Automatic annotation (TrEMBL):
Cleaved signal peptide residues: 1-18
One Pfam family here: CAP
Species of the source: Salipiger marinus
SUPFAM superfamilies linked: PR-1-like
InterPro entries listed in its UniProt record: CAP_dom, CAP_sf
Occurrences of domain SCP (ranges): 55-154
Domain of life: Bacteria
Keyword Signal: yes
PANTHER family cross-referenced by the UniProt entry: SCP DOMAIN-CONTAINING PROTEIN
Protein name: Cysteine-rich secretory protein family protein
């Protein structure tokens, strides 16, 4: 069996994500589509929150950027979205309740001047999610913003949500 690895990014300026069966492609304004297939593992690789945070901050520091701080409110927003995607079995920036990342961040009590969301669907763990996000210009751009200070990063099964924020 083959598992499709998918990712999407939403900067509040708007990126569109399309999810199809089999060959899953990313459709974004101005970006080429991305398609990647790998054999599915027997089990989904679970990554500890600490290891996920280390992967994100190591990636940023290797590019001369300051590490981000895990924010409990953004963590809550990320967890809500990952749980929703796992429950519905679909990856989308719009939650099943119609919410977007800004809505979820506000509901969690995070007051922001900027917020962005990267999504990935991969059973291979944080290294795979980071690799996919790095290969996509809009995902990479979101992670490279030097003005960001906070993050929340959640995995529920194969669904990953990274919420990045700059407080007001």
């Amino acid at each position: 069996m083959r598992a499709a690895l998918v990712l999407c990014s939403l900067l509040l300026t708007g990126a569109a994500c399309a999810d199809t069966r089999g060959d899953v492609r990313l459709a974004q304004s101005g970006d080429a589509s991305i398609s990647e297939l790998r054999p599915a593992p027997d089990r989904i690789t679970q990554t500890s929150p600490k290891a996920a945070a280390q992967a994100l901050n190591s990636w940023r520091q290797a590019r001369g950027l300051s590490p981000l701080h895990r924010n409990p409110r953004l963590q809550q927003a990320a967890e809500v979205q990952s749980r929703d995607m796992a429950r519905t079995g679909r990856m989308a920036h719009q939650g099943s309740d119609g919410s977007r990342v800004g809505d979820r961040a506000k509901r969690a009590g995070y007051t922001y001047s900027h917020v962005a969301e990267n999504l990935a669907m991969t059973p291979f763990g944080i290294d795979s999610a980071m690799e996919l996000w790095e290969k996509s210009p809009s995902h990479r751009q979101a992670m490279l913003r030097p003005d960001l200070r906070d993050f929340g990063l959640a995995q529920v099964g194969q669904y990953w949500t990274l919420v990045l924020g700059k407080p007001r």
